[in-house]
Amino acid sequence: MPEFSSTVRVRYAETDKMGVAYHANYLVWFEVARCNLLRSLGSTYRDLEERGVMLPVIEARCAYRAPARYDDELEIRTSGALLSPARVEFTYAVRRRADGAALAEGRTEHAVVDQRGRPRRLPEDIQGVLA
Amino acid sequence: MPEFSSTVRVRYAETDKMGVAYHANYLVWFEVARCNLLRSLGSTYRDLEERGVMLPVIEARCAYRAPARYDDELEIRTSGALLSPARVEFTYAVRRRADGAALAEGRTEHAVVDQRGRPRRLPEDIQGVLA
Amino acid sequence: MPEFSSTVRVRYAETDKMGVAYHANYLVWFEVARCNLLRSLGSTYRDLEERGVMLPVIEARCAYRAPARYDDELEIRTSGALLSPARVEFTYAVRRRADGAALAEGRTEHAVVDQRGRPRRLPEDIQGVLA
Amino acid sequence: MPEFSSTVRVRYAETDKMGVAYHANYLVWFEVARCNLLRSLGSTYRDLEERGVMLPVIEARCAYRAPARYDDELEIRTSGALLSPARVEFTYAVRRRADGAALAEGRTEHAVVDQRGRPRRLPEDIQGVLA
Predict the structure, then answer these.
(1) Has domain B3-130 been given CATH number 3.40.50.300?
(2) ipTM value of the model?
(3) A87 vs A45, A58, A131, D80, CA distance in Å?
(4) Active site (annotated) includes residue B16
(5) Per-block average pLDDT, block size 10, for chain A (131 residues)?
(6) C22 and chain A: CB distance < 8 Å anywhere?
């Protein structure tokens, strides 16, 4: 189960009036992280889509431990796993780089579909790296 | 356990290149829905914050059944429940108004804290309506 | 030159750590407003796209007079004008409903293109209502 | 007039159903770029705010030349200039790294205010680097 570490820096646009990062942005950062993971494995999500493979999110969850603040550099550790030839899962752990504080953990589950939204199998090469 | 129905219309900004609503936006719509629920109960989240009560999300999840598309009118049914005097939960069900299709279900859990982030009890009047 | 008035309520997600609505969201609200304008004229932007007409933004500007705050109800007055058969402009004025305060004014200019991004003329019926 | 080059990669969340980056995101990227510029000059916008200096956007504009697509790496060249001791401007040029295509140009103008929104002068050290 390959793992990969990505970095994002909290944008002003991503904060809210509580002075911290708005919770929905973690799902966006998860997307950044899993795309970086795929890239590190020799594929890109853009390539996948061009080959007719989409990975829509069918379930997402996130537990928030401590707030991220504006300009914080966050490390997102991600790993992916094949649940079936047509179902993939990614898990995420978010830390603040400056002090190592654990900020959040999450998980997304994805269907594998073609451009018309019909179930299909993940290509063998991607199955290989996620297995 | 009071329930309330809100409507949002999918904005162009909320779609992605798959042609459907991007999944993180459901968490934003959940926020709109629970704030409308509070308003319907005679309080507003803005008032709550001005009284020194914040309800940061400590856990969020969403299961996606079918895609929402640009310009779709969505109905979000929400209900809230008191888990403890310092812990609240809301659940959500999202349907497309046009055909009644069930699009997603979700849940958020919230701590009750003061402006400095310290745990506190929910005011009695709000406890009353959520119990 | 038809005019139309839309209402949006500032979402928590749209605020930033300054405690006010983040400036980029005005462009999103402008989009909501011009789509409502088209709808009021008997067409929808979704229909337009299904007829192979896209209106990508080629220029946008906004002047900010006073901040919008969380939960504020905003009125956005919009009007559209045909600059040429292949060029459209919309202008916007944003007020806070509660006190009528002028918050912002803006303008967007749009090309008229087909699904492949090639210039095309706006359909006659839409030209008619915007002229 | 110092200049600085930042890189952002277009996120899936930032695309829309036209298959390209949604136009409002350029304002967000501009914010990333000017904060990086300040950082390169030895200050950070977070520090500025902690010193009681806010730079709210009072005018923003962007001209869009060609669409950015998902996963594109974008270079944003930014420079800042002092219009007065209490007024700052930044300009931006966005290019796609892969082919150097010019995608957009923009400008933001900012007031200098304290935490209560009252006009104030920019600190001397920041004036120095922007002059």
Answers:
(1) no
(2) 0.96
(3) 15, 10, 12, 48
(4) yes
(5) 92 97 98 96 93 97 98 97 95 98 98 94 88 73
(6) yes
